[in-house]
Amino acid sequence: MNKIFAVAGVVIKELYRRKDFYVLFILTVLITGLMWFMTFFHDEHIVRFVKEICLLLIWISTLAISVTTAARQVPAERESRTIFPLLAKPISRWHVLVGKFLGCWAASGIALVVFYAFFGIVSASREHTLPLGAYFEALWLHWQMLGIVIALTMLGSVVLSLEANITIIFIISVGLLVVGGHLHRLAGQMSEPSASILTAIYFLIPHLELFDMRELIIHDWPMDPSIWVDTLLVTLYGLAYMSFFLLAACLVFRRKALN
Amino acid sequence: MNGILRTENLRVEYRSRELKQATKVALKGLNLVVQPGEVFGFLGPNGAGKTTTMNVLLGYVNATGGAAYLFDVNVREPIARQRIGYLPELTYYYKFLTAEELLRFYARIFQIPKSETESRIDQLLKLVELEHARKRPIRTYSKGMQQRAGLAQALINNPDLLLLDEPTSGLDPLGRMKVREIIQRLKNEGKTVFFSSHEMGEVETVCDRVAILHEGELKVEGHVADLLNQYQCNLEQLFLKVVGYQPQLS
What we know:
The complex is a heterodimer of chains A (259) and B (250). With 259 residues, chain A is mostly helical.
């Protein structure tokens, strides 16, 4: 594990030395700035609407940061040829890939904490309440969702070019979030064999919408204790997809020519 | 004797993706043995198969036939690289890291205990004369400094075998001299050095034994003094003779 953590550490170090985190900070401040509007409108519906927009921005920003960071890891190593002295050490390709994944996932987690902390502080200053359980739940599952996307991006990065990978992963992620949960209903309206194919796809794809807990924060819904069991199950579901995509990426990368 | 670096009938073929292009044979059954404590020069013109041999030894490329071993461990196993140090021809390091961060990163990969890591970093940065620049990002280094940082990373695990790919390529005379001094010092410490180079004078000065490779085949191998005696010429002339160079006389 030490080798994997060493690689992950370099990914995080690179991220903050490349000033990505500063861009992140500016984005956070901009989003928080939007929250200030709530001081002018004391209508509860408008406050919820602004919260919804802010959370949507957080989702888009973190998705963009996670995908672009993960997508460039392997291509950048190959392009700058830093992969050569690295693999000349007693480290296998799967160590490198898993280390890169963990580094990106940890970095996205740090970014999420920064975003949610700012959002939570500003929101609490207006509403005089901070439902910590709901925030933790939303943040945790959001992080798991990013883990799946990062693992899928790692798989794409050993198969596709950088630009193609980023574009395809964005389309897939947004597609999964928006229509993934409705495929079985669409299948019900179709004739065979399209209906069976669409149903099979529905059961095969990772359902990213399960990780979306924004409504919990927006509407301040009360937390049922059983939610933690569901959270655990969804976390295991996410980990299974992450493992599958990473395994596939390792199998491809193992045989990949380096230059 | 097994040697600490050994190749047995090593064959590497590169298959072309183009339909009409033939498979390129980069190595045609290479047999090589490097004994502990010797400085071994690996020579050959461009395209002879030196880099391919290095790539197989470092696990970047899988052999089509035969096998290669480091310390009697097949190079397909990452653990075979536990006791080696590798210096590439050009500096391929994380330029956003400082020299000491780079060394610390590689030390973690070798699983060197933290208590040992710091003293080793101090020793190495002193050896390659980079103490003054240890906290500066590598991207701010001159080419010679980057090459010396590379040499330090190759030595972080106190390797028994060093693989150097044209270590003085592109360096000024002073830089070359410093690298040569370090190789000599390592030799005196009993380390084994396997290096490829186009600098015949350097090879003649530093190496105990040499091998000359041409078109994927081993043409000549032996002790430098014996070869010079046998062919009655210097190493450069021997090299040109082996690769079939005919001087064009006007």
